[in-house]
Amino acid sequence: MNGDHMASGHLVVDKKVLTLILIVLLLCLTTVISNGFIIVALGTEWLQRRTLSPYNKLLVSLGASRFCLQWVMIGKSTYFFLYPMAFLYDPVMQFLSLLWDFLNTATIWCCTGLSFFYCVKIANFTHPVFLWLKGKVSRWVPWILLSSVGFSGFTTILFFTGNHVLYQHYLRDKCQYWNATGDSMRSFENSYFFFLKISVFSIPFGIFLVFIVILLISLGRHMKKTLLTLSGFQDAPVQAHVRALLSIIFFALLFTSSFLVLILNNGSRFPLHEAKSWVWNIVSHLCMAVHSLFLLLNNPKLRATVERSCSPRCEVS
Q: Which stretches are transmembrane (predicted)?
């Protein structure tokens, strides 16, 4: 940290970084609104009917984790803006990082569970094992959600342990903030956090890639059959099946790009005062915001609810 960013002993947030922070906050609010709508709509249906379809259970769980995750990001960004000299691993940041690690991991595993549900329900295979999975997957949704919580909790403990070790190292050596991320602490970050995040996040990402391949094979076979008969291509169920598979591919592209950005951001470990760190955050949160809107508008019930809620306002105006 050079003297250009220091003024009267206080760290000054660069204007470029401040602009990027505001963009991140705007994307977070967009994701909060879309996922909040999903939670309210599906939560109301759950309370009224006392039941919810397995797919909607996965969707509302993903929406809830993303909703809370965005508020944690808003809290971290606000805290950094108000206290730019605060150490990255001080107690407040440790608490926010604890919430972030848990909710972020839960979001990734919920996405993986949702892609598994998509893959089994939509892909068209006649293998006995696949048919057995198709009949059992709806009953497995509660266990999928419970496993997501368990994996997230275990991962959070590992991340919290590393954060606590760094903070104790910081207190023991009485480091200044702008020197706190150098030498031995930087070495610990690279050796512990990078490999931890790569190993933890590569598991769901690898599973997700398998689902992508299965869906692409299923789509190719289905398109080949429908192209053989033009009348079959005009059939409504066939068109719905193709649209669903194309939606899954779009879902896969968004999740893949978001995950790759996450890996690059975690591997780089840029200080929060550098613009590069916030650029990666913008890309990641943009993918999340777009995907949340896609899930909202791609669900017929949710889309109809959005149209009903918007129509009275249009009539009044």
A: 20-47, 59-82, 102-120, 140-161, 192-219, 240-265, 277-297
